[in-house]
Fold this sequence. Notes:
Order of helices and strands: HHHHHHEEH
CATH architecture: Up-down Bundle
Helix content: 55-70%
Radius of gyration: 16 Å
CATH superfamily: dinb family like domain
Structural class: mainly alpha
Strand content: under 5%
Distance between the termini: 42 Å
Shape: globular
Largest sheet: 2 strands, antiparallel
Oligomer: single chain
Number of domains: 1
CATH topology: Four Helix Bundle (Hemerythrin (Met), subunit A)
Number of strands: 2
Strand order of the largest sheet: 1-2
Amino acid sequence: xxxxxxxxxxxxxxxxxxxxxxxxxxxxxxxxxxxxxxxxxxxxxxxxxxxxxxxxxxxxxxxxxxxxxxxxxxxxxxxxxxxxxxxxxxxxxxxxxxxxxxxxxxxxxxxxxxxxxxxxxxxxxxxxxxxxxxxxxxxxxxxxxxxxxxxxxxxxxxxxxxxxxxxxxxxxxxxxxxxx
Length: 180
């Protein structure tokens, strides 16, 4: 999927929706966040939220680096791999296929203040990215994803939105599996 086919502003809207959903569950309190349904996922609701907050922070940092054209991971040459194009075009990633990198894997028990800090940081970073939407769409370089290979700034933005929705779907399934 060429980065020119990605609606950067549309991805911003999808990220706002995801962040609003995460905030709504945080407002339900600790019990809602600590809920687990092992038949759905090995992680609790808050572990999914923390993972997505950490992964989104990382993706947003990649977007900023690509726009600024500064950073050790930047590749000037690149092309999107077939698997990445498929994931980004289909706007979904299958469950259980990839293992989260250690740097975005939550501890067994998530400290609520750290989760709140990360989610707040995601919102602030998103506001900053919205101010450079045109630069994101035009950024020419690449940073590799551990599973998908080289991604442009627009690809990283789209991936962050689909990844957030992927984990939000798991959170919804955990909640649906809980006894009423």
